[in-house]
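Technical note accompanying the year-one report. For the benefit of new consortium partners, we illustrate the data format agreed upon in the data management plan: each record pairs a sequence with a structure-token string. No post-processing was applied to the example shown here.
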Amino acid sequence: MSEIAKIRLQGAKMTTFAGQSLARSLYGRPVTISLQGELGAGKTTFVQGFAQGLGIAGAQSPTFALEYTAETASGERFSHIDLYRMKPEEAERFLHQQRDPADITCVEWPDRVSNDHWKEAIAITLKDAESDARECSIEFRDAVLTTEEQIAEWQEQWRLPTEIRAHCKAVADFSCALADQLLSRGTIVRKQALYQAAVLHDLFRFLDFREGAGPSGFVATEEDHLAWNRCKEIYANMHHEEACAQFLREQELPVLSTIVAPHGLTNPPGEHATTEQLLLFYADKRVIGSTVVTVDERFADFEKRYGDNPLRAGWMQETKRVETLLFPITQL
């Protein structure tokens, strides 16, 4: 099951910006990005923006050289291939000769060869709309997602309290509302992956339960404690974020695992965080129970629940940093 994101791009500047944003939504290497669209649809502009997002300055078009290679800011090998001037048999032969594929490969005119080459690609399609607008469709074939039924089964298996399920759903809904704002501005977001990660982010929240800090009036049953103790044995000495990420890796859901891993305060998203990681981290800090609040209100509640933690000011500052990073103009 693949995910499709759609954005509307107004002009070359916004197309470049969208390409830059894709660099902040990559999971796993090697990865191939295929770009389909008529001449002048903006494919090369998109790739040049993508290259900029990877830290490559002055990326060139490979139309006549067939392939342009460079090194990203993180030391990965980047390849931009243009198959436009090749006949199908020539394109097939050229791709088969790529014995050492780059970490990140962009291919324009992928229809020159069999679709088998792009089964696990991130497939970009650009189409002209009215005026100078373009419609951009991004199909993420590189990520495995789960189902609502499976998520519900895990929640039952681990006896996740109703109040925490409601919190996860509220964080997921708010994450997606924030994602819609970004998508409307031309930022690419894996909204479905974000939603699933958000619904699952506190699956093992009980690992960090403290007396008096849980949901008001909640009383755990014997069955609850049995399930939680079994989880504590499996994921000994782990906080709930790390344990949930490990669980999702074991379910062969590496993208969801990566998004979930840094959502907590003790291990916030780092310098190279993806857009989805930032959105989940931030949305989680804007929800008390199942109610969306301000950052100030959230940390006032944090102090009420956990006391005057000396790290509280730094965590609050980090949350506001992420807010500014995601929404540098709009005040939420």
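Partners are asked to follow this layout when depositing records. The mean pLDDT is 90.
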